[in-house]
Amino acid sequence: MIGSTPVRMAITAGMDVVLSNSRGPDTLAELVAELGDHARAGTPAQAANPMHAYDKPPVTELAGKTVIDTLNYYPDRDGRIAALDANTLTSSELVQRHLADSHVVKAFNNIDFRRLVLLPRPAGSVDRSALPIAGNDAAAKEQVTHLLDVFGYDAVDVGTLADSWRTEPNNPVYVQPYMPQLPDGLTMDEAGPWFFESPGVPLTASRVTELVGVAVRGPAGTTPPFLQS
Asked: According to a count of CB atoms within 10 Å of the terminal CB, is the N or C end of the chain lower?
């Protein structure tokens, strides 16, 4: 969901998009037809989600390119990854290690796909939200900052890929600030409809900066807060 949502936003902004996945272009035919003339399916297969597939994107074809990493580490889904459990690397550093000749930028990982399409606003709007980005290459971060602006968001540069843990699960800027407070007493069956029906909560660049600044690194990986029992 978080992968296809920026695709839809890019097409809305008039961009041409090539989609790929781990199963081949034929499996994307229905989505491409839905998206229209600005979208097409292609190869090589590019499995970018979930986290256990971080080493699947093609190295040669992505060399020299900016790669936006949207991954989050959920051990219950992905299995245990020792380097992440030990906090010796961030998930984005693992991706960058695999894509050694690419320019990886962490973005879109701290917001859910519903709020991502609900919160865009024109530049200068008082209720414009911001998203954090992290990366080792200044030019690549500039590209992603421009893309976010086109999509209707400000960008907050939180540092290098080593700093990207500040935007990941278990940290203050992750998901919840863009949503209303989950009502007390909801069952898991009730939480699903609430998730889809609840509005977005604007989060300004200054507030993103504040939340990122108070992050404290703890155990890597969690369950999204709106699905926790």
From this structure: C
**Is residue 214 classed exposed, middle or buried when 0-12, 13-18 and 19+ CB atoms within 10 A define those classes?**
exposed
Fold for the domain defined by 47-214: Rossmann fold (3.40.50)
154: DSSP letter = E
Q: Is 17 helix (H, G, I), strand (E, B) or coil?
A: strand
Give the SS3 label for residue 132: strand
Dist CA 227 CA 85 (whole Å): 22
Q: Are 223 and 168 in contact (CB under 8 A)?
A: no
Q: What is the SS3 assignment for 64-120?
A: CCEEEECCCCCHHHHCCCHHHHCCCCCHHHHHHHHCCCCEEEECCCCCCHHHHHHCC
Q: Name residue 23's amino acid.
A: R
pLDDT in tens, 19-56: 777 677 788 888 888 888 888 887 644 434 456 667 77
- Nearest-angstrom CA–CA distance, 17 and 36: 10
Residue 132 CA: distances (Å) to CA of 28, 191, 222: 29, 26, 19
